[in-house]
Amino acid sequence: MDAVSLKNIHKTYDKGNVIAVDDVSFDVKKGELFGLIGPDGAGKTSIFRILTTVLLADKGSASVAGFDVVKEYRAIRNRVGYMPGKFSLYQDLTIKENLEFFATVFDTSIEENYDLIKNIYDQISPFNDRRAGKLSGGMKQKLALCCALIHKPEVLLLDEPTTGVDAVSRKEFWDMLKDLKQQGITILVSTPYMDEANLCERIALIQNGKILSVETPENIVKAFPVTLYAAKSDNNYKLLTDFRNFDAVASAYASGEYMRIIVKDEHPDSITLLKDYAEKFGNRNVEIKIIAPTIEDNFIWLSQKEANH
Amino acid sequence: MKQLFVFIRKEFYHVFRDKRTLLIMFGLPIAQILLFGYAITSEVKNSHISISDNSRDANTEQLINKIKSSSYFIVDETSLSEQEIENTLKRGNVRCVLVFPPNFGNNLLHSGKAQIQIIADGSDPNTAKTLINYLTAIIADYQQEISPAAVLPYVIVPETRMLYNEEGNGSLNFIPGVMALILMIVCTALTAVAVVKEKELGTMEVLLVSPFKPIFVLISKAVPYLVLSLANFTLIVLLAVFVLNVEIKGSILLLFLVSTLFIITCLSFGLLISNVTSSQQTALLLSIMGMMIPTLIFTGFMFPIENMPWVFQVISNIVPSRWYFLIIKSVMLKGLGFAYIWKEVLVLIVMTLALLGVALKNFKIRLE
Q: In this protein, which residues make up the domain named ABC transmembrane type-2 (chain B) (predicted)?
């Protein structure tokens, strides 16, 4: 049995004018660390809210921990840990008070499942008497995670837990998720950061409410169907504009230091071809090489394919 | 049960850590009571008047002294010239001018008849009428004094008495009204805001995704404000008794019981507002603006309901504070017992149950 399962879920807002979730289906296996990857406005939060039973889908069915999200919502509410995208703790209560409150609301105590949160709680317990509103972003996330874990949930639903958190805290956070996975908790996590996708066991790429692909990160990268070229010059902006006007180039987009280029027809001499073209237009110090695609490249490839449909 | 207790304790933390809420809760009532008790008063006291004494004899002096000694008037000037009369009134320095014609005393003693002119500033007709009444009464009194032997064939002496408020203390009417007003606004606004705050912060989302029953959320929100409102009510009563000298004639216990009932009515209304709003601003605007005007107008302590067009009279029936005002007036000022107020209490109970029912039924177990 899958821990989370969605079948043809549709969700619209504004009387059907805004499509948030468009025919989404995917399953999360028990004990899996599953990532929902997509930009802002892709429909991630809507999916989380449908799964946590606080939002009703227009069409389709979904289940969490084996319970239907509509009919058996009470059972689900007992069994999931949920961390909404917006920081949702009481700013005017201290760390300890927040934790105690959520423990009681979930009918348990801090001591009962202490081993589960110990590693995380130890990092914030020195500030037990500090109010949540006065904590740093990273500490807030840790506290929120503690609160979501306090009742030892079967399924942990984390909506963009690392958004707005510094790089070090983000890494720590993912380490904590791995620890939790070891303890048998199913985790569904969403993020807009493509680099975090590799940390998940399986990911679903989502854009405009549509699932583009559900795979392991390795397979998604492997499935990249064409050769990807990376290029840079003294003036990357000019180079990019020139390549976009080049007949032989299917697509060109900026990505960090090197821009990415996909050619229309694969050719053993593509590098020379691109370089000659670039230099003809006055670009200097042009450097072109073949590069291994990342999740982000896949995402762009898939969303362009989807857009051309 | 423990969950409920912890939840309620959490609400108290919120209240005591938020200075603004505390200020609204306890500052507003004190300010209002003092404002209504002192500044805004319907009594006419210490009115400035001037006198134009064109006679200057023993009689005018006696009469002027009599006027001076009453607490209603402050006599600014006694020898105003005719030309100045209108100017003084125009400038608004005085409310009223008393004019003694020449030979006032002579006429009075010899022909047995003298005239006196009272010119009042009619731009505030109520005050003007009251002042004229006071002056006429003082003059009549003086007339009696100087002619004790006058044999009038028939005399009707009206003996008036202001029951329940012998001294004509204006705060007596205002206090119950202000109580109703404050409780209505403070209870409604604070409860509504407390619930909506959770929605705005996103904590409601987490609470919904918990085994905690939604009904308990509402109960936990209402209980702290019930306790605080009762403390508030006690404060108002203390202020009324010790600062504004209002005497409580009826049973204190009954007063607190009916007030608790009214507070619950207001809390239910606040919960209802929290159901239909999603931001603190809207909730606050709705509960303060939406409540303030109807409460002020339809409670009956500012404008008598009997004088309103029948449409408004009908509308006033659905304003809870109107009934509470009637109850408080009966218990506090007239010292009546439960037998005299059970109808109003029943109306409040029915209103509370209806509001609470709708609020609970409309409470969303989901976000939309």
A: 139-366
Instruction: Give the DSSP H/E element, type plus range, for residue A283.
Output: none
Q: Kindly list the structural domains of chain A, giving each domain's residue range(s) and its CATH number in brackets, ordered by start.
A: 4-221 (3.40.50.300), 229-292 (3.30.70)
Q: Where are the domains of chain B?
A: 18-40+169-362, 47-146
The whole-angstrom separation of Cα A51 and Cα A64 is 7
Q: What is the pLDDT of residues B207-235, one digit of tens each?
A: 888 888 878 888 888 899 999 899 989 99
Determine contact, residues B301/B180, Cβ cutoff 8 Å. yes
The tens digit of pLDDT for each residue in B31-60 reads: 888 887 776 666 677 888 898 888 888 888
Dihedral sign of CA atoms B11, B216, A112, A151 in order: negative
Radius of gyration over every alpha carbon of chain A, rounded to an integer in angstroms: 23
Question: Taking the mean position of all CA atoms in its chain, how far away is CA A240?
Answer: 28
Task: Select the residue from A56, A86, A90 to test the B interface by mutation, using most B Cβ atoms within 10 A.
Answer: A90
ipTM above 0.90, yes or no: no
Assign 3-state DSSP to chain B and report helix, strand, coil percentages, each to 5.
65, 5, 25
Q: By CA distance, what is B364's nearest residue in A?
A: A54
Task: Calculate how close chain B gets to A308, using CA atoms only, in Å.
Answer: 34
Alpha helices per DSSP H over A89-166: 95-105, 114-124, 137-149
Distance in angstroms (rounded) separating the CA atoms of residues A182 and A185 = 7
Cβ neighbours around B22 below 10 Å, total: 13
CATH of domain B47-146: 3.40.1710.10
Which residue type does B258 have? Answer: V
Spatial CB neighbours of A57, under 8 Å, sequence gap ≥ 6: A9, A10, A11, A21, A50, A69
Q: Which of A88, A97, A107 comes nearest B202 by C-beta? A: A88
Distance CA A177, CA A166 (A): 17
